[in-house]
Write a structure and sequence with these properties.
two-stranded antiparallel ribbon, alpha+beta, 11 helices, single chain, 279 residues
């Protein structure tokens, strides 16, 4: 099966953005029956206000050890190289910011637990890229409901029968029919193995693709869902940058100095239409 994609550019979604209205207004003149709307989980989470200001978090001893020793030493000198991370990524890990990083690890410990906090990023689906100041975005706790709600809103607005797929950029690694991810609560058929999934996937150079979380109106195999998630992610891009460091560099500021106003100047594509192409 071949697919075409069209990324729908919108303004940056800030807290209290009416994401349903934004999605329907963006898609109503574009969608056709049987289209698949692939929606960024993080965009919806931000719109719903599922963010936390890490500057108000007081890190405890374990979080400080994770930031200073685990991130800088273990990830910077052992796990980073064996996971084939890029040189720049390894250098950033070796200089992992201690006050800010400790606060972030405290959030990871509280919301995702120790095994997820051992990851070097996206702990438990927590994301800090394309966010201002010291904000972190928490994952959705009801992606299935969101998918159904979006599908119903499109039907009411357009009369089109579309499918909806909620995805996270955190990777799923595949080997034949085995699909593993460090991301908690993926779509059924993908196994969450935490840090082990990331290490295994990176060390063995397994095929990485964005992780589908929930769907509505879809009857796909996991392989098909992963493929659609991957091509939608490629069409979407990374906004102002792939990581918090990249975003700061994009705007020429230091970490924690990115503002809402800066992000609002960048066009984002949280919605991607994926359409089957007749052969």
């Amino acid at each position: 099966m071949k697919y075409s994609t069209k990324a729908l550019k919108t303004k940056y979604w800030t807290p209290n953005t009416d994401y349903l209205k934004t999605i329907t207004n963006s898609a109503k003149n574009e969608v056709q029956d049987s289209d698949i709307l692939v929606i960024s989980e993080k965009a919806v989470s931000i719109a719903l206000g599922r963010i936390i200001d890490e500057s108000n978090v007081k890190p405890r001893y374990v979080a400080k050890i994770l930031a200073s020793f685990w991130m800088r030493k273990i990830w910077g000198y052992i796990l980073g190289p064996i996971c084939h991370l890029e040189k720049q990524s390894i250098e950033r890990l070796r200089e992992y910011p201690l006050p800010e990083g400790s606060a972030h690890k405290q959030v990871a410990l509280e919301y995702a637990g120790l095994t997820q906090a051992l990851r070097h990023g996206s702990e438990g689906g927590i994301d800090v890229s394309n966010l201002p100041y010291a904000y972190a975005c928490l994952p959705l706790n009801n992606p299935e409901e969101i998918a159904r709600t979006v599908r119903e809103a499109i039907w009411k607005e357009t009369g089109k029968k579309v499918a909806v797929l909620i995805v996270d950029t955190d990777k799923t690694y595949s080997f034949r029919n085995l699909h593993i991810t460090p991301r908690p609560n993926p779509m059924k058929g993908i196994k969450c193995l935490g840090l082990f999934a990331y290490l295994l996937g990176r060390i063995l150079k397994l095929r990485p693709r964005s992780t589908p979380l929930a769907s509505a109106g879809l009857n796909l195999t996991i392989e098909q869902a992963l493929r659609i998630a991957a091509i939608a992610n490629k069409a979407r891009g990374y906004g102002a940058g792939k990581t918090a460091w990249d975003v700061a560099n994009h705007f020429g500021v230091r970490l924690m100095e990115v503002t809402w106003q800066m992000l609002e100047k960048v066009k984002h594509s949280p919605i991607v239409i994926v359409r089957k192409v007749n052969q």
